[in-house]
Amino acid sequence: MSKQLLGVIDATSFHRNLETLIMNRSAAAIPFGGRYRLIDFILSNMVNSGIENVAVFPEVHYRSLIDHLGSGRDWGLDRKKDGLFFFPSPELEGLSMKTGSFDHFDESLEYFYRSKQPYTIIANSYTVFNMNFMPVLNFHLNSGCDITELQQNGLSMGIYLLKTSLLIELIESRQRTGYSSMAEVTSDVTSCFSVCNYQHEGYATKIESVKGYYEACMKLLTPYVFGQLFTKEQPIYTKVKDEPPSRYTKNASVHHSIVANGVIIEGRVENSILSRGVRIGKGSVIRNSVIMQKCHVGEDCILDTVILDNDVKVANGSRLSGSFDNPLFQKKGHSQGVPLEVM
Amino acid sequence: MYKKKCVAMLLAGGKGSRLNSLTKRIAKPAVPFGGKYRIIDFTLSNCTNSGIHTVGILTQYQPLVLNSYIGIGSTWDLDRKNGGVTVLPPYSEASEVKWYSGTASAIYQNLNYLNEHEPEYVLILSGDHIYKMDYREMLNFHIEKGADTTISVIEVPWREASRFGIMNTDEAFEITEFEEKPSNPKNNLASMGIYIFNWKVLKEYLEMDHRNADSNHDFGKDIIPLLLEERKKLIAYPFKGYWKDVGTVQSLWEANMDLLDEDCELKLFDHSWRIYSVNPNQPPQYLAPEASICDALINEGCIIEGKVEKSVLFQGVTIEEGASVRHSVIMPDAIVGKGCVIEKAIISCGVRVPDGAIIRPKYKEDPVILVSHESILESLMR
């Protein structure tokens, strides 16, 4: 049953509002939840739905994405038969804001012809959710529709299920029909295809702006959202980093936070998310903030409503703050103030 | 296939009976340690970090968990085209099943494995100890000294020396005498159970030992004394650094508490010598608003609503509201119920401590309390 689905992740979509977060990476590779990248959610959902053949279509800046996914081993996708495939676009022009660019798919048309799975699920790479697609396939088979679109509260999630043969037909006939993406097909009420909607009941959020990113991070601190995303039955997989457990020293005081492994906390942390390998120095206070991988915050700093991208160093005694509507963002590898000695 | 210079043989068949219920269903090398690891992770990580990529692992007692944990060795980067990890359980021959009766007989029965690799040196290890060690340095020492056998030793406090196998040496580190648990030790250099043999010497003496019906087939009791008797060149390699045999419930607890000591020589955060471990694939740790944590080592997948102080928490542990955990080790997937008070205890894997339970020794100096499924059931029956 599950062998009937082919997974396609469109990691090309571009959002101007994410600019600072995607300077050196695609949206799919944005860090989230202390140890994940956005693509981990859709990829894990596919794997947890029994999908064994997944194609990822990345666009520019796919270095960090490929570094993250590797051979697909951490998702159990390093297979002799099927597994994980990458199809970077040779063209860097013409970025599409819609999921499922047929131009891009056309360059790898042979892959779709070769794949044995009769149905395909096409998804964007920047939705944070935990969902099993088997009920969607059942719904699709029972409804007899040409295309099933996933929706949440009546709005499209940018995820579609259809026959692989129909997808090939749509790709090949794109010049004649004028449809350049799945979104265009489903939003055209006059099209000759029947489109059904499948409502997703659980939590899901698209990351389309820095503000939206920050809000999603803060929502993750609520037990409801945390419980929706992280379940024992359908774990979210990610690249293994082999960090030790996190160390809270005698001076540490931590409340209402999410902490990944390999973190050393000597200060006070509240209402924040700390990613793998972060250091918080003595006497520092971190509130309402998102601290990404390997950031080092020195001693006696106060950080409130701040997003630190990977590898940011914050010098002793620094004061940084933003507002909920406009969290202060520090670029990757940026040093705030005097560079710190390696701690 | 190019010839391997050094092949490691890791003895992982021990029962570790002094760990009581912790080793009822798993072998000692599979016992959890340090919030994330199993004891064997330290030895396997030392191998991979030392560039030793051919490792035979000898298992016997309760091997199911251990075997599936080792898998193909990919966790330690030991899934190799040439060499890699090979699990070597006892096997049956035409006449009988040959259980490993001693450390030496375990290696003897796998001479075929070593013959196939035809190495120059064989490194004998045990999966029972917590330490970080570069075996290359020991091998260089062995080659420099022109030894037949090198035994890694560590200085232990004089008052404890009579608990160990003690090596008496001359100034050039040459071993003159070996005393197993001497009542009046002349030296405080204890054997760490790590040996490097010239392969030809090892093969010859294992075969000799096999023919001796009176032998216990043990490295410490038989092979080393025999080598000394035959005037082979035995060298002691003095190791400096953290090393701990976590053979008892008390020492396992102490070694976990050592990790919380800022001056502890065992640095888990040293990235140049990482300790690898099978990834449990859990979400990050979630600390509720009412949580309070200080002086702790906590792994992913933990949900903490209570108070944690000077403790080590493994993956998937839940500390419910109002509970307080101090000076304790909470093993994977254990749940500490609402309002519990836990002090100086080891809570075994998957145990659910019922709400309101109070587990603490009467006096501070009392030994650590080991809490298992059975002991919880027993106390509920009362």
Please state roughly what percent of the residues of chain A sit in beta strands, choosing from under 5%, 5-15%, 15-25%, 25-35%, 35-45% or over 45%: 25-35%
Largest sheet of chain B: 8 strands, parallel
* Strand residue content of chain B: 25-35%
- Discrete helix count of chain A: 10
Please give the structural blueprint.
The complex is a heterodimer of chains A (343) and B (382).
Chain A: E1 5-11, E2 31-32, E3 36-37, H1 39-48, E4 53-58, H2 63-69, E5 83-86, H3 102-106, H4 109-114, E6 119-124, E7 127-129, H5 134-143, E8 147-152, E9 155-163, H6 164-172, H7 174-177, H8 182-187, E10 195-199, E11 204-206, H9 210-219, H10 223-229, E12 246-248, E13 253-255, E14 257-259, E15 264-265, E16 268-270, E17 273-274, E18 279-280, E19 285-287, E20 290-291, E21 296-297, E22 302-304, E23 306-308, E24 313-314, E25 319-321, E26 328-330, E27 335-336
Parallel strand pairs in A: 1-4, 1-6, 4-5, 8-10, 12-15, 13-16, 14-17, 15-18, 16-19, 17-20, 18-21, 19-22, 20-23, 21-24, 22-25, 23-26, 24-27
Antiparallel strand pairs in A: 2-3, 6-9, 7-11, 8-9
Chain B: E1 6-11, E2 32-33, E3 37-38, H1 39-49, E4 54-58, H2 63-70, E5 84-88, H3 103-108, H4 111-117, E6 121-126, E7 129-131, H5 135-144, E8 149-155, E9 165-169, E10 175-180, E11 189-198, H6 199-211, H7 219-229, E12 234-238, E13 243-245, H8 249-258, E14 285-287, E15 292-298, E16 303-304, E17 307-313, E18 318-319, E19 324-326, E20 329-330, E21 335-336, E22 341-343, E23 345-347, E24 352-353, E25 358-359, E26 369-371, H9 373-381
Parallel strand pairs in B: 1-4, 1-6, 4-5, 8-12, 14-16, 15-17, 16-18, 17-19, 17-20, 18-21, 19-22, 20-23, 21-24, 22-25, 23-26
Antiparallel strand pairs in B: 2-3, 6-11, 7-13, 8-11, 9-10
